[in-house]
Amino acid sequence: MLERLLENILPSQNYSMQYRFSNGNIVDAAIHIGDKIVPVDAKFPLEDFERIVAAESEKEQTAFRRQFVNTMKRHIDNVAKYILPDEKTFDFALMYIPAENVYYEAILCGQSEVSEIYTYSLEKRVIPVSPNSFYAYLQAIVLGLKGLHYEKAAGDIYAYVSRLQKDLGNFEEDYRTLGGHIRHAAVKYEDADRKLGRFGDRLRLAGETSVEKLPEGSTETIDEGE
Questions:
Q1: Closest-CA residue to 88 (of 162, 19, 42, 167)
Q2: What's the whole-model pTM score?
Q3: Cβ 91 vs Cβ 125: under 8 Å
Q4: pLDDT in tens, 21-48
Q5: Paired sense of beta strands 36-42 and 26-33, if any
Q6: 3-state SS, residue 176
Q7: Domain spans of the chain?
Q8: pLDDT grade, residue 222 (50/70/90)?
Q9: What is the 3-class SS of 13-59, one letter each residue?
Q10: Which CATH architecture has domain 2-150?
Q11: What residues does 95 pair with on adjacent strands?
Q12: What are residue 118's DSSP bridge partners?
C-alpha cells in the first residue's frame, strides 16, 4: 500500500523502496527532495489494536491500551533511527500507519494514554501518518518538487542566456573586424578603379598618336597622385 501511494503520486525518480543507508539500516521508503531525503517506515501494531477493540471490560481495555502505547513508542524509536542528517535526511521521519482506525486510536482518540503517543512522537521528530494524511503530505511534497523544478529551469534558462550573451559578444567582435576589412577593401577598390581609368585613358591616347609623336619614356608608371 505504501509503495502504491508513492507510485501514484510521485515521479519514480523521487522515491526509493527499501532504501539502504551506509550504516546498513534499511528504511521502507525514502522520498528524494532535491539532495535531501525524507525517511518513511511503515508500522502496523494491529494485534495490540485488536486487543483493545475486543476487550470485555474497561479494566482490560485500559491495560491493553497501555500495552498499545508501549508498542507505539518502540515503533517510534525504531523509526527515529532513520533520521540521519549526515546521510542527507531531513531532521524528521514519517511513520506510516496503514489503517485509519489504528491511526485514530494512536493519535486522535481523546484518552490521555493516546495523547502520550503523539507527544512522544514529536519529541523524537517522528510524524505518524495514515493513508489519508500521508496522501496530503505527498501532495505538499509534489508542490515542493514543482517549485524545485521551476527553480532549476530558471537557472538553466539564465545559464543559456548567459552563453548567448557571450556568443553575441564574440560575434560582435568578429563583425567589427569583418566590417573593417570590408571598408579597407572598398577604399582599395576605389583607388584601383581610378588607376585603371587613368591607365585606360593613356592606352587610348597612345593608340591615337603616331609613333613619331610619342614622348620618350612613355613607360612611366601610374602613381597615386596622378
A1: 19
A2: 0.60
A3: yes
A4: 999 999 999 999 878 889 999 988 878 8
A5: antiparallel
A6: helix
A7: 2-150
A8: very low
A9: HHEEEEEECCCCCEEEEEEEECCEEEEEEECCCHHHHHHHHHCCCHH
A10: 3-Layer(aba) Sandwich (3.40)
A11: 41, 128
A12: none
